[in-house]
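Example record

One chain of 177 residues, shown exactly as stored in the release files.
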Amino acid sequence: MVKEEKNPRKKFVEEKDPKKKLLDEKVVSISRVTKVTKGGRDFRFSATMAVGDGNGLVGIGTGKAKEVPEAINKGIQAANKNLVRVSIIDNRTIPHEATGTCGRAKVLIKPAIPGKGIIAGGAARVILELAGVKDIISKSLGANTQVNVAKATLNALLMQKTPEKVAELRGKTKEEL
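Predicted C-alpha coordinates for this chain:
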Protein backbone atom coordinates (compact mmCIF):
# COMPACT_ATOMS: atom_id res chain seq x y z
CA MET A 1 0.00 0.00 0.00
CA VAL A 2 2.79 2.45 0.76
CA LYS A 3 4.22 2.02 -2.74
CA GLU A 4 0.85 2.77 -4.31
CA GLU A 5 0.63 6.08 -2.41
CA LYS A 6 4.11 7.18 -3.52
CA ASN A 7 3.52 6.44 -7.21
CA PRO A 8 0.61 8.89 -7.69
CA ARG A 9 2.64 11.64 -6.04
CA LYS A 10 5.56 10.96 -8.35
CA LYS A 11 3.24 10.89 -11.35
CA PHE A 12 1.69 14.23 -10.27
CA VAL A 13 5.13 15.87 -10.02
CA GLU A 14 6.09 14.55 -13.46
CA GLU A 15 2.88 15.92 -14.96
CA LYS A 16 3.51 19.37 -13.47
CA ASP A 17 7.02 19.77 -14.89
CA PRO A 18 5.96 19.79 -18.57
CA LYS A 19 3.43 22.56 -17.82
CA LYS A 20 6.20 24.78 -16.50
CA LYS A 21 8.19 24.18 -19.69
CA LEU A 22 5.33 25.66 -21.72
CA LEU A 23 6.28 29.09 -20.33
CA ASP A 24 9.47 30.80 -21.46
CA GLU A 25 11.61 32.38 -18.75
CA LYS A 26 13.82 35.44 -19.06
CA VAL A 27 15.87 37.45 -16.59
CA VAL A 28 14.83 41.09 -16.25
CA SER A 29 17.53 41.98 -13.71
CA ILE A 30 19.88 40.47 -11.14
CA SER A 31 21.30 42.68 -8.43
CA ARG A 32 23.30 42.24 -5.26
CA VAL A 33 21.60 43.61 -2.16
CA THR A 34 23.25 44.23 1.19
CA LYS A 35 21.91 44.20 4.71
CA VAL A 36 24.24 45.87 7.18
CA THR A 37 24.07 44.35 10.66
CA LYS A 38 26.09 44.67 13.85
CA GLY A 39 28.13 41.65 12.76
CA GLY A 40 28.94 43.04 9.31
CA ARG A 41 27.41 43.00 5.86
CA ASP A 42 25.00 40.27 4.69
CA PHE A 43 25.04 39.91 0.90
CA ARG A 44 22.13 38.43 -1.05
CA PHE A 45 21.00 38.41 -4.64
CA SER A 46 17.71 39.71 -5.97
CA ALA A 47 16.48 38.35 -9.30
CA THR A 48 13.51 39.73 -11.20
CA MET A 49 12.18 37.19 -13.69
CA ALA A 50 9.54 37.31 -16.40
CA VAL A 51 7.65 34.30 -17.74
CA GLY A 52 5.26 34.05 -20.68
CA ASP A 53 3.84 31.72 -23.29
CA GLY A 54 4.18 34.06 -26.27
CA ASN A 55 0.41 34.04 -26.72
CA GLY A 56 -0.88 36.76 -24.38
CA LEU A 57 0.07 35.22 -21.01
CA VAL A 58 2.84 36.98 -19.06
CA GLY A 59 3.97 37.48 -15.45
CA ILE A 60 6.72 39.15 -13.41
CA GLY A 61 8.20 37.93 -10.12
CA THR A 62 11.10 38.72 -7.80
CA GLY A 63 13.09 36.33 -5.65
CA LYS A 64 15.90 36.85 -3.15
CA ALA A 65 18.45 34.32 -1.93
CA LYS A 66 22.11 33.94 -0.93
CA GLU A 67 22.92 32.37 -4.33
CA VAL A 68 21.92 33.54 -7.82
CA PRO A 69 20.34 30.24 -9.04
CA GLU A 70 18.14 30.04 -5.94
CA ALA A 71 17.04 33.66 -6.44
CA ILE A 72 16.22 32.91 -10.09
CA ASN A 73 14.11 29.87 -9.12
CA LYS A 74 12.23 31.91 -6.51
CA GLY A 75 11.65 34.66 -9.07
CA ILE A 76 10.25 32.14 -11.58
CA GLN A 77 7.90 30.72 -8.94
CA ALA A 78 6.68 34.23 -8.05
CA ALA A 79 6.19 35.09 -11.74
CA ASN A 80 4.15 31.91 -12.30
CA LYS A 81 1.83 32.99 -9.48
CA ASN A 82 1.38 36.45 -11.03
CA LEU A 83 0.42 35.43 -14.58
CA VAL A 84 -2.03 37.73 -16.37
CA ARG A 85 -3.69 37.64 -19.80
CA VAL A 86 -3.09 40.63 -22.09
CA SER A 87 -5.06 41.69 -25.19
CA ILE A 88 -3.38 41.07 -28.52
CA ILE A 89 -5.13 41.66 -31.84
CA ASP A 90 -4.32 39.85 -35.10
CA ASN A 91 -1.79 37.76 -33.11
CA ARG A 92 0.79 40.51 -33.57
CA THR A 93 0.03 43.91 -31.98
CA ILE A 94 -1.97 45.77 -29.35
CA PRO A 95 -5.40 47.41 -29.85
CA HIS A 96 -4.45 51.00 -28.98
CA GLU A 97 -1.85 53.34 -27.49
CA ALA A 98 -1.35 53.30 -23.69
CA THR A 99 0.99 54.57 -20.99
CA GLY A 100 1.85 52.48 -17.94
CA THR A 101 3.55 53.71 -14.79
CA CYS A 102 5.34 52.16 -11.85
CA GLY A 103 7.15 54.46 -9.46
CA ARG A 104 8.86 57.15 -11.53
CA ALA A 105 9.11 54.92 -14.60
CA LYS A 106 6.67 55.51 -17.47
CA VAL A 107 6.38 53.36 -20.58
CA LEU A 108 4.47 54.43 -23.69
CA ILE A 109 3.40 51.63 -26.04
CA LYS A 110 1.87 52.09 -29.51
CA PRO A 111 0.59 49.59 -32.07
CA ALA A 112 2.76 49.22 -35.18
CA ILE A 113 2.24 48.17 -38.78
CA PRO A 114 2.88 44.53 -39.77
CA GLY A 115 6.55 43.71 -40.12
CA LYS A 116 7.76 46.58 -37.94
CA GLY A 117 8.96 44.30 -35.12
CA ILE A 118 9.44 45.10 -31.45
CA ILE A 119 10.89 48.58 -31.11
CA ALA A 120 11.73 48.55 -27.41
CA GLY A 121 14.75 48.36 -25.19
CA GLY A 122 15.83 46.44 -22.13
CA ALA A 123 13.18 45.31 -19.69
CA ALA A 124 10.26 46.48 -21.88
CA ARG A 125 11.48 44.25 -24.74
CA VAL A 126 11.63 41.20 -22.47
CA ILE A 127 8.01 41.66 -21.32
CA LEU A 128 6.69 42.35 -24.83
CA GLU A 129 8.48 39.31 -26.33
CA LEU A 130 7.16 36.97 -23.63
CA ALA A 131 3.64 38.39 -24.03
CA GLY A 132 3.73 37.46 -27.73
CA VAL A 133 3.51 40.95 -29.21
CA LYS A 134 5.29 41.01 -32.58
CA ASP A 135 4.77 44.56 -33.87
CA ILE A 136 4.94 47.40 -31.35
CA ILE A 137 6.67 50.70 -30.64
CA SER A 138 7.69 51.40 -27.06
CA LYS A 139 9.31 54.39 -25.38
CA SER A 140 10.60 54.44 -21.83
CA LEU A 141 10.02 57.81 -20.14
CA GLY A 142 11.16 58.96 -16.72
CA ALA A 143 13.28 56.68 -14.55
CA ASN A 144 15.01 53.72 -16.17
CA THR A 145 15.03 51.26 -13.26
CA GLN A 146 14.74 47.88 -14.97
CA VAL A 147 12.24 46.38 -12.51
CA ASN A 148 9.96 49.44 -12.64
CA VAL A 149 10.17 49.64 -16.45
CA ALA A 150 9.12 45.98 -16.67
CA LYS A 151 6.19 46.54 -14.30
CA ALA A 152 5.17 49.73 -16.13
CA THR A 153 5.20 47.83 -19.44
CA LEU A 154 2.96 45.15 -17.94
CA ASN A 155 0.61 47.85 -16.57
CA ALA A 156 0.38 49.42 -20.04
CA LEU A 157 -0.42 46.02 -21.56
CA LEU A 158 -3.13 45.44 -18.94
CA MET A 159 -4.82 48.75 -19.92
CA GLN A 160 -5.48 47.40 -23.42
CA LYS A 161 -9.13 46.82 -24.33
CA THR A 162 -10.25 45.00 -27.46
CA PRO A 163 -13.30 46.30 -29.36
CA GLU A 164 -15.24 43.27 -28.11
CA LYS A 165 -14.45 44.15 -24.49
CA VAL A 166 -15.45 47.82 -24.99
CA ALA A 167 -18.73 46.75 -26.60
CA GLU A 168 -19.41 44.38 -23.71
CA LEU A 169 -18.76 47.14 -21.15
CA ARG A 170 -21.17 49.47 -22.97
CA GLY A 171 -23.82 46.77 -23.38
CA LYS A 172 -23.69 46.87 -27.18
CA THR A 173 -22.51 44.62 -29.96
CA LYS A 174 -19.22 45.11 -31.76
CA GLU A 175 -21.04 46.22 -34.93
CA GLU A 176 -22.93 48.99 -33.06
CA LEU A 177 -19.64 50.67 -32.15
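Notes: The chain is about 35% helix and 35% strand.
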